[in-house]
Amino acid sequence: MTDYMTMTAGTPVSRSSAIKLYDESGFAGMRKAGRLAAEILDALVPHVVPGVTTGELDDIVRAMTLDGGGVPATLGYRGYTHSCCISLNNVICHGIPGDKVIRDGDILNIDVTPQVDGWHGDSSRMYIAGDAPIKARRLVEVTYECLMLGIAQAKPGNHLGDIGHAIQQHAQKHRYGVVRDFCGHGLGRVFHDSPDVVHVGRPGTGPELKPGMFFTIEPMINIGKPDIKMAEDGWTALTRDRSLSAQFEHSIGITQDGCEIFTRSPTGLDAPPYGA
Ligand code: MF3
Ligand code: CO
Ligand code: CO
Prior knowledge:
Layout: E1 4-6, E2 19-21, H1 24-44, H2 54-67, E3 71-72, E4 84-88, E5 91-93, E6 107-112, E7 114-116, E8 119-120, E9 123-128, H3 134-152, H4 160-173, E10 177-178, E11 184-186, E12 193-197, E13 214-217, E14 220-222, E15 228-230, E16 237-239, E17 245-247, E18 250-254, E19 259-261
Parallel strand pairs: 1-2
Antiparallel strand pairs: 3-7, 4-6, 5-16, 6-9, 7-8, 10-14, 11-12, 13-18, 14-17, 15-16, 18-19
The structure holds 2-amino-4-trifluoromethylsulfanyl-butyric acid (MF3) and cobalt (II) ion (2 copies).
One cobalt (II) ion binds next to loops.
């Protein structure tokens, strides 16, 4: 049984097991936060080049977030002290920015979450530094396709399992592994809320999608097996078999007849290649 909770102006901001259903003012809030997330990811394109460090990219994200009237939601989140996550090559997610230098042929995910007027825009994209092997570029391409096929299932009357199923089918067609240990999530005025959005599933299972639901879809796809290994730092998740991993993330809201993507690029830079 799924509980739903209609959000009004007076509703307290808290995490609960009920799935919140937002009104038009929620859509307006998410549109603004999502737009800033997309603009930051757009603006990063010329900066992601061989020689730059992940710490320098984090500084750019922090500056752009503050300039845009937001605050990085990850700053101080459960002890995390950076403005984004940067996950290179065999890192699945939650890579911590630092002294690491980006090298020619690296593929990396940059995940940003600006909070604007209390609303969270959570999005990530893959970037390719210099020339990467076809194997890596193909993984990035298929992972983006997985995200968009999942989003295509996001409409009233469908279930969360339809989204997971579409993603899983496409990844498995390419013999890739879908990570099970991390999932998408509800969001709004809470960063990580109900429901869990699992990236595998069976059609027609899980909570039914209803207008006003806000959540992320953020599939993590490995060239090899889905299994993860946690690094010593307690954050960085790696592929256990050291294979390459890719991820894309959008924040969406269910509408009367489909969904609205809050974090879509205003300039068409949703996935590589981003042009010269
Ligand atoms: N942005 C990530 C997500 O998609 C969460 C990062 S939390 C952090 O949900 F603390 F690791 F930064
Ligand atoms: Co997320
Ligand atoms: Co994210």
